[in-house]
Structures are given as C-alpha cells and as structure tokens.
Specification:
The chain is built from 13 helices and 5 strands. The chain has 295 residues and is an alpha/beta fold. The protein has 2 domains: 72 residues, Arc Repressor Mutant, subunit A (Orthogonal Bundle), CATH 1.10.10; 165 residues, Rossmann fold, CATH 3.40.50.10490. The chain has a 5-stranded parallel beta sheet with strand order 2-1-3-4-5, with helices on both faces. Helix 7 crosses helix 12.
C-alpha cells in the first residue's frame, strides 16, 4: 500500500481527467489548505463539482474523500507554522459560534481517540507502569502541562516519578542517565513534535526500558522506538494545541492503575489523608463558618 499522497498522484497522473489534474495540481501546491476543506469546498475553489473531487479520491485508491483528506493532513502534521494555524482556524470557524465550534471539535477528538486507541497497548502500558522501579515522564512546551498532571498523580501513587520537562540536552540526560530495563519511559509529544522527546525516548529504548508513547498518530516519530503506543487525537490546525483527548486518555490510565492496585493505593491515600489532616493542608471552614469537611 502506497501511503504517500504525492507519490500516488504521480503514479496515477496519466489516468486523471483534465478536471482531476486540476485538483491534483491544487493539492500539490496547497495541500496545507486543501487538507481542511470539504469535498464541496475543494471543488468550488478548483472549479469542479463535489462528485469530481470524490471520484478523484477513488481514482487514487482511497475509500472516499475523508481518506484523501486524512492523507493530506498527515502530510502537514509537523509542518504548520503558528501563522498557518491561525489562518486555518479562522477559516474553519469564521463567524460561527466559537464556543460551539471549538467544543464540538474537542468532542470529535475524544470520539476518535476512543475508536483508535489500542486496548492491548493500553493494558501493556498500565502493567509496565505498575511494575516499573522508576517512572520517567517526558513532556515539553504545551505537553508539559498534561505530563505534570500525569506525574503528580503517579508520584502520589508510587513515589518513584522523574519528570523531564526541559529541552536542555544537558539537563535531560542528567536526569536520564540512570534509566534501565527495570524502568518505564513515557514520552508525550504532539505536532509540532519535540526533537528532544524523540532523542530521549531513543536513549531509553537503547537502555532496554519499556517505552510508552502518548502521541497523535502512527506516523508520529515517537512510534518507532516505543513498546506501547497510545493514540490520542489532537487538533493539528488549531491556534492552540488541543490536548483534551490526551488528558482524557491520561485520566483513563490513572483510573486503570488505581483499579489494578486498589488495595495498595487505598493504604497509600489513607496515610496521605492523615498527613493532610495533621498538617492542616486543606481548609476545614471558611470565614462564614462553613465546615467543608462535612459537606
């Protein structure tokens, strides 16, 4: 199966009609824009009918236009600049209800994640985390926020978490150089992918560590060195990195770990609750005299 869209176009060029060659030409020059157009929208800008666009997708060997569109999106996954993201986002939402549009897009990402995440890899990742002597989590830039969230709960549960949220090679490898085959490495990265995440996960893989990738696609550069791959869809053309689905996936991992280690974790949190109470970590009542502990 030929996965590269531009190669497919070259191979089928002689069989394309004049209208289809116009579609091909537009995609070759403007695939970053075409990737987010409907079949009707692409047809309108090229000057052909929607059905011609659909037939073009079929001619290239795709099972309909949505598969052609996905192929275009894969091409630009790591190539959209911040300026291009702004242009695409404003073009997609325009004068629509921004709240409804953005939340519906997030809902769609969660639905796609439910469909695409491997239950086998999910279970393998849960087991590896539970059995690890040390847990390393790598996440930088926007991914650092969900990696810190994940690390916070895993450290409460296990107390053996090492966070790496810097792009400094010196600092990263100072944290990583003791990693071994008894540990687990969790790398979190979405477009535009972190080069340091790829390097750090390769380093862990070479040490025999079980490597878990939380990323958005099987074409992500994190996949090749990973033992468990968890796909969580993000919006590659949003002004901001849409990490709702990855956060939901991380929530699922935490819940699965708690279920697997319920008795041990209950003991841990029972001891922790006692420390919180002894040290007055949480306010028992406010200035109006409301006792929150009884609510």
């Amino acid at each position: 199966m030929i996965s590269n869209l531009l190669v497919r176009i070259d191979m089928h060029r002689n069989k394309l009609s004049k209208s289809q060659r116009r579609i091909a030409g537009f995609i070759e020059e403007h695939y970053d824009k075409a990737a987010f157009m409907t079949a009707a929208g692409l047809g309108e800008i090229v000057g052909v009918s929607e059905s011609t666009v659909v037939r073009f997708a079929t001619q290239l060997g795709y099972d309909g236009y949505p598969f052609l569109q996905k192929a275009m999106q894969e091409m630009i996954r790591d190539k959209l600049t911040s300026i291009q993201r702004i242009e695409v986002t404003t073009g997609r939402i325009s004068n629509n209800d921004v709240v409804e549009a953005v939340l519906n897009q997030d809902i769609d990402k969660i639905k796609r994640t439910i469909e695409e995440v491997s239950r086998t890899d999910f279970k393998r990742a849960v087991d590896a985390i539970i059995e690890a002597e040390k847990i390393y989590i790598f996440g930088v830039k926007s991914a650092s926020y969900i990696s810190n969230f994940f690390g916070y709960y895993l450290d409460l549960i296990f107390g053996n978490v090492h966070m790496i949220n810097t792009t400094s090679k010196t600092t990263s490898y100072e944290k990583l150089f003791r990693i071994s085959d008894k540990d687990v490495m969790i790398g979190i990265s979405f477009p535009r992918y972190s080069t340091m995440a790829v390097d750090a996960m390769n380093f862990a893989h070479d040490r025999g560590t079980h490597v878990i990738a939380i990323t958005d696609s099987m074409v992500s550069p994190l996949v090749s060195m990973s033992d468990s791959v968890l796909i969580a869809r993000s919006d590659i053309a949003s002004v901001v990195d849409t990490l709702v689905a990855p956060l939901s996936l991380i929530n699922a991992l935490i819940v699965a770990i708690v279920i697997e280690r319920k008795d041990n974790i209950i003991k841990t949190f029972s001891d922790l609750e006692q420390v919180w109470q002894e040290q007055n970590i949480y306010a028992a009542e406010n200035e109006n005299g409301i006792n929150y502990e009884k609510i």
